[in-house]
């Protein structure tokens, strides 16, 4: 191309900086509590924000991360064109729309299995890794004179690894609740700070304000249990959303209501910790229903796999009855008719499923 490839170091540095997440100028109103005000931040030591180091492993090798707000700014700047297109398509007058943006963030966190060094002489670190990441699911706008929120950007491939931005990588075994919560602690602190504040960022040449909503829907069951301080999946308490034990779940395959919430789990953890009624271990476990560690991030009570399966089973059970009775030919079948279809289905199920 005839351009000189070998640039002097300082221009390369400048170019590199612009490619690093967090080069964009931004501001929080009110300023974030417990978070430094520097905008120009690249990859930081994941333990920054913690005074003491963790034992056993050299602390400076355990984790690397971006600062959460800086990473969100970078993600929004990546979507700048999409946001502007969305504004144009929805006929929003551009200069009028500077506030009222809300951004939905899906958070994911999962273990990465065995990442051990096979022949190396590197630092002694745990041989498992965990990756915490997020996806910008949607950006919507509540205009001042409008009732409805208008979605101006929706992630077309929300489950693709291409839309999933890494935030933190750590050498931690995901079953090690204590270390995991210690490493994710600063992230949670930043996340909580951001909920109370709004981001002022230049998008499309105008300063606009954004509020963030976080949903931890990208965790698998193991991680949800970990975050919620529940016993692991082999526990008598099968479910992450209700208190049914294995025996109860086997007896009653249909009616399981969602009963858990985060505050309740915190209360239970306190009971587990203090044992106010001086009960034996078994009685205490039965009282707290498998909450044995401190819940760590609030989880929206979305459906877990168990309740989802139960819901599907109930739905199919009804559909099969309707099929047996050829309900599409009839108008308002009587209760007796319905009962006979159900009896036929139950008989068939018992025969087939023993």
Walk me through the structure.
- This is Recombination activating protein 1.
- Pfam families: RAG1_DNA-bd, RAG1_pre-RNase_H, RAG1_RNase_H, RAG1_ZnC2, RAG1_ZnH2.
- It comes from Labidesthes sicculus.
- One of its GO terms (cellular component) is DNA recombinase complex.
- Residues 103-235 form the V(D)J recombination-activating protein 1 RNase H domain.
- The N and C termini lie far apart (74 Å).
- This protein has three domains: 9-218, no CATH class; 226-288, no CATH class; 305-353.
- Strand 8 (198-203) and strand 9 form a beta hairpin.
- Strands 1, 2, 3, 4, 5, 6, 7, 8 and 9 form a nine-stranded mixed β-sheet that branches.
- The chain contains ten helices and nine strands.
- Helix 7 (262-274) runs antiparallel to helix 8 (281-288) and helix 9 crosses helix 10.
- By secondary structure, the chain is an alpha+beta fold.
- The longest helix has 20 residues, at 305-324.
